[in-house]
Design a protein that fits this description.
By secondary structure, the chain is an all-alpha fold. About 80% of the residues lie in helices and about 0% in strands. It has one domain. The chain is extended, with a radius of gyration of 18 Å. The two termini are about 30 Å apart.
Length: about 100
């Protein structure tokens, strides 16, 4: 799965180069963020597989995705100075509320 994603990204970058799309520049910080993201996505994928191998409930999927979405929104505001809009804050709150409600079911 991860290899397919990497190949797709490489094909996209090649298509941009061949078709004269906007240039994609690599910086050290960008490469490091990409590596960190890849590690996190890979670890999350492995944890998903392990969850279901152990007989984890399908209802855990939305909870895991909600935690990821909330964590990314919080990281965007805290680490990357993204603006905190009412809709983004409400989304984080509703994600956390959804997790709580799924755990009680």
């Amino acid at each position: 799965m991860e290899t397919t994603a990497a190949v797709t990204i490489c094909l996209y970058l090649i298509a941009l180069k061949v078709l004269g799309g906007p240039p994609q520049h690599a910086t050290t910080s960008g490469v490091l963020y990409s590596i960190a993201t890849g590690i996190c996505v890979g670890a999350g994928t492995v944890l998903f597989f392990l969850l279901f191998q152990k007989g984890g409930p399908l209802s855990a999927v939305p909870a895991v995705l909600a935690v990821g979405a909330a964590a990314m929104a919080i990281a965007g505001v805290a680490l990357f100075q993204e603006s905190l809009s009412w809709s983004r804050a409400l989304g984080v709150i509703l994600s956390i509320a959804g997790i709580i409600l799924l755990r009680k079911a």
